[in-house]
Amino acid sequence: MKMPDERIAELQQEVAYYKKQLNELSGSVVSRDYRVAEMNNEIKQMQTGFELIAALNQFKPVLVFEEIYDHFSEEINSKLQNDLSFFLQPVDKTSFFFIPGFIKGNPVVDVLKLNRESVYIDPLFIEQKKSLLVNSQTIVTPFIELLTKAFGIPYFILTPVIVGHSVIAYLFTGRKIETVLFATSRLLMHDALALEAIAGVIAAIKNQHDQFELLERERSRISSDMHDEIGSGITHIALLSQLIQTQSKDTATFKKDINVIATSAHKLVQTISEIIWALNPHNETLENLLAYIREQSQLYFESLEIQLSIFFPEIVPDIKLSNEQRRNLYLVTREALNNVMKHSEASAVQLKFDIVDKELCFSVTDNGKGMNEKKNRPGSNGLRNMKNRMEDIGGSVEWVQMDDGMAVNFSLPF
User: 413 and 350 share a domain?
Assistant: First the structure.
């Protein structure tokens, strides 16, 4: 027969055993319920991601591109039920410092403080063009710590918006609390994929928007050319035509005015021809431009006592130029040749093209008297027009005074 103390010890062991079993069982049940809840939330999150992507088809592009950022920032924060969403944009095109904008968040978010924040993003990270997903399973890096401290959000997704092989912005969305039983689940890869789909659509809209702006600028430029060059030419011809109607046909003045009208009409036809040539998409290559410059320059100097020499490479690289680039390069070359004819008193002029360090280089060099400081200084109308035309297409021009003439050098990076 066992002593009472022994029996008590046995009972205590049995109780401990059943406690252990109960703890394991309850822990298993809780763990199972927890995982089921998490899976349910993940399914809901996936459904939300699909809804976000599906909603892209219903989005109507707007004329003001910033409205796109504002729209998607609101949609993402609402659908994913996050605490904070915004777009990080670079301070300028070459900067690695980004500032938040189009901020959407819950009432506790200090929007004014966020608007003053700026974060440095490592160029190597930008170059990777990848999304960054940060949840409880992510190994924290100094960059993640930097973003968490800056925005007060420990769990987030950072997705690049890529246009033309460059990151123009980052989409940031996240939450302060990651996992609560039967409620919020952690951010997962499918959330990042949904954001990448949105970033892709934003990039496509940005491309369309940029093309629309380029088209509008081109239309405006053509309209300006038509108004300034063709309009003034037609007005000049009309005024002269009215004037000669009051004159006798046998007078020298009448004949002079007729010649002026003919010259003006010829210039007008030439201007229209140049505009049409620049607009023709078949003339988009550098080779086409050089051929056109050669042809027009030879026609220009064939009746003059100035020897024209043209040095163009036999093999021209396949470089495509925009309408504005083609037209401006042609016009500045023509203006430089025109200045030689009018002002230089030269007997020879050389037109040369070359490619140096990824730059298109044109030069017009003469053996004349050089630049007249009063009439042809760099601030005068003709030279200013050349400077403006080159700057409009991202190029430059310089005038070099030489002992035996003048050189005008044009350069355009490509």
Answer: yes
Last residue of a domain, one of 204, 227, 250: 227
| Stronger pLDDT, 33 or 67, i.e. the higher one | 67
Please check whether residues 69 and 217 belong to one and the same domain: yes
Of residues 411, 407, 389, the one with CA closest to residue 348: 407
The average pLDDT across 349-367 equals: 90
List the domain range (segments joined by +) for residue 151.
1-227
Whether 189 maps to a domain, the answer reads yes
Q: Would you give the DSSP letter of residue 53?
A: H
Strand (E) or helix (H) holding 165: none
Task: Tell me whether strands 348-355 and 307-311 are parallel, antiparallel or unpaired.
Answer: parallel
Residue 55 belongs to a domain: yes
Average pLDDT over residues 125-146: 90
Q: Is the pLDDT of residue 278 over 80?
A: no
**pLDDT at 272 > cutoff 80:** no
Phi, psi of 105, deg, nearest 5: -165, 180
> What are the DSSP calls for 20-45, one per residue?
HHHHHHHHHHHHHHHHHHHHHHHHHH
Predicted local distance difference test score (pLDDT) of residue 36:
45
Residue 103: what residue type?
I
- Rounded Cα–Cα distance for residues 331 and 289 (Å): 11
Residue 261 lies in a domain: no
Check whether 350 has a pLDDT greater than 90: yes
User: In what side-by-side order are the strands of the sheet with 119-120?
Assistant: 119-120, 97-105, 84-90, 166-175, 155-163, 132-134
Furthest CA-CA distance within the chain: 156
CATH number at residue 401: 3.30.565.10
Task: Give me the CATH number covering residue 30.
Answer: 3.30.450.40
Lowest mean pLDDT among 49-63, 159-173, 271-285, 289-303: 49-63
83 and 199 in a common domain? yes
Q: Comparing 248 with 392, which gets the higher pLDDT?
A: 392
Q: Is pLDDT above 50 for 199?
A: yes
Using a 10 angstrom Cβ sphere, with 0-12 exposed, 13-18 middle and 19 or more buried, the burial of residue 160 is buried
Total structural domains in the chain? Answer: 2
Cβ atoms within 10 Å, residue 73:
23
Please indicate, yes or no, if residue 260 is contained in any of the structural domains. Answer: no
